[in-house]
Design brief:
Elements lengths: L2 H48 L2
Keywords: Membrane, Transmembrane, Transmembrane helix
Length: 52
């Protein structure tokens, strides 16, 4: 394997690792948002029930 190919593989691995980290961060943010939305729905439901 020549040096260019080795460098290209190192770069590819670095890019894929960065993309994986970004994907993991986005998934964590989406999980937190889903929890927040669920809590907001519960609060709205309790509020509506209080007016009945």
């Amino acid at each position: 394997m020549d040096a260019l190919t080795v460098d290209a593989l190192k770069y590819l691995v670095t890019v894929l690792m960065g993309a994986g980290a970004a994907y993991g961060g986005i998934r964590a943010d989406l999980r937190n948002m889903r929890k927040d939305i669920g809590r907001a729905h519960e609060r709205i439901d309790r509020h509506i029930e209080g007016h009945r």
